[in-house]
Amino acid sequence: MLQVPYYPLKRVNDSFGSDIKRALERVVDSGWFIRGQECSLFEERFATYCGAKYCVGVGNGLEALSLILKGYIELGRLEPGDGVIVPSNTFIATWLAVKAAGLVPFPAEPDEETCVLSLGSVESAFTNARLSGVAVKAILAVHLYGRLCPMDRLKAYAEDRGLLLLEDAAQAHGAAMMCSASEDGVQKVCRAGNLGDAAGFSFYPGKNLGALGDAGAVVTSDESLARVVRKLANYGSEQKYVHEYVGENSRLDEMQAAALSVKLPHLDADNARRNEIASRYLAEIRNPLVRLPQPAVSASLSGLPLSNCVWHIFAIHCRQANGESCRDAVQLHLKSCGIETLIHYPTPPHQQKAFADAYGVVEYPIAERLAREELSLPLHPNMTEEEICAVIDGVNSFEGC
Question: What is the value of pTM for the model shown?
């Protein structure tokens, strides 16, 4: 029986040939491993790729988000105790970053079809926060599964109320959308990382742009924020032994930066391949017990095909006619077919022990239902035709609990 792994990391990295090994050897031969030329070069390239002015390499995606929030506290845009609107169905790192900065996560339910925040859900959360006495000062929009939030609408809403609009782009490397018309009346394409005031990225190995270990970045066009974040991430220091802030140690090392520089030029092609496979799934999976995600919306940059979803995760939702979840049964069936699947994410943040004391009595039914029903199918740029067909056939052959 054909075995279809969820994400064969070695196969993915081997697709870059010996380029990664040569890059790592170059770092070893240089004798310089922290805050060197490789990091500076990647920061410049990734900022340009995102269409932003600045990129600050940091230790991981969680720290990227918390450093943005801490940076805006230092700049006076936020104060400890302020509320930050977050999705109720995200990975817990989004909530942890808000708490780490001394701020208050205020959940908003996602749109059930897209699984990301909508303008309506943000409006409702903002109103509920005011009624609860929480002063909301920022929206942290998570591009879950690689799908962009409706950032044009959220940006207009945030600007009207003087709120910061931040991106958790940990799963959305390269996702793009048509931006509002510029002064000359010409629409342009904007990528994740350039759709709000600042964005946090993760380069965890399994991401669309993955390092060989933990790594992350803050991307922004806000020069003041970039300078503060760079200091905060380096013990609060810009000059050696001179510490302006109570900082921390969160830096992108030379090894990871070198590997990321090898992979970055291939990201758009890899995302295009992900979109091809997702399109196959959307067209050929036909099972009434399985709800498929919405198709991606296309954009184009200099003839390069881009979309608002880069399919970091292809999430299906499994529900019987009586409304009960059949996700676990689908997962067992696919396992019997040799197909590995994952669940993103089985328990929403408000039901985790870390947050249960503050949020456990509040229900977020959409997030809870999505958590019961979600199943992630294998999808990566190096899938074979045989593997793609096996996944399609496996899902279609499920007949019920």
Answer: 0.97
| Residue with token string 């959305």 | 172
142, 168 Cβ separation under 8 angstroms:
yes
Where are any strands of DSSP class E within 59-197?
83-87, 104-108, 136-142, 164-168, 176-178, 189-191
* Cα angle value 229/214/262 (rounded, 5°): 95
- Return the pLDDT at 161: 97
Partners of 239 in the β-ladder:
242
Structure tokens of 224? Answer: 């003041």
pLDDT in tens, 254-305: 999 999 999 999 999 999 999 999 999 999 999 999 999 999 998 777 777 8
Residues 102, 133: contact at Cβ < 8 Å? Answer: no
Residue type, 155: K
pLDDT mean over 156-171: 98
Give strand ranges (E) for 211-338: 216-220, 237-239, 242-243, 290-291, 298-301, 304-307, 314-318
- CA 327 remoteness from chain centre: 23
Token pair recorded at residue 38:
């490789």
- What is d(CA 200, CA 225) in angstroms, rounded to the nearest whole number? 13
